[in-house]
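ok trying this again, last paste got cut off
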Amino acid sequence: MNPALKKLGFNEQDRVVIIHTDDIGMCQASLSAYENLLNAGLISSASTMVPCPWFPETARFCRDHPGVDMGVHLTLNAEWASYRWGPISTRDTASGMLDEEGYFFNNVPATVQSARPEAVAIELKAQLERALAQGIDVTHVDSHMGTVTHNPFLQIYMGLALEYKLPLFMLSSRASNLEHYGVDSALVRQLDELEEQGLPLFDAITMMPLDDPEDNIGKARAIFDSLQPGLTYLILHPSADTPELRGCAPDWPSRVANYAAFSSPELLDYVKQSGIQVIGYRPLRNLIRAA
């Protein structure tokens, strides 16, 4: 059984899920959707992209609503063609984090190949420190496009979680699909060590599609039906339908569909009747800091 769930009082058969909204502050449409989804009552967590233009407004919202469950979506990539951002710690090309136009690379392999780990360490810490300085009660850290979960950045990512006593987005060694995420035997040992040090890890990770906007309520219901006992991380990327979103994100139809599904009373009622337990990151952070 997941040791964090046991400490929180759940039993071996409980299906527990964090319903997490990514990319908050990437654009205005992401923040307005997040505000409305909080009122809808189904999502339980979110993370913000500190280098992006709408981070300051996200921070203001968090200051005005100090109880929200907001993490830092550690960012080393800017994936869109016409809407870009870059590091907050440096403009030095020697860092290896900048493409030829002066932004983050638009793909993960280029970042993994080019970025200097020491520069990445400074950048990730700067993003976390800026979120804290702006008054966000940071509940966790996770990874935009999964970049920081790749070598040679993984140790930096795990070290940051340990240093700040924050839970992180990471599968446990109990997960059945570790091979899909490129987890080798050495990392399995490290995952076990992280749990021994008190960091909660996930038994499963799943995501709402970003390439299929059709019937997202049905797709979400299928995901909830498939949840197994343990702690699952369900990721969605909700945004309001605005000209800004349509102009910057080619996958905007799916982001809008994610938003519509998880703001629907129908899906909220379905989850309530399913027996699934929805939690945020805050109780997991409390476990770490109480240890």
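PB: full thing came through this time. The first helix runs from residue 3 to 7.
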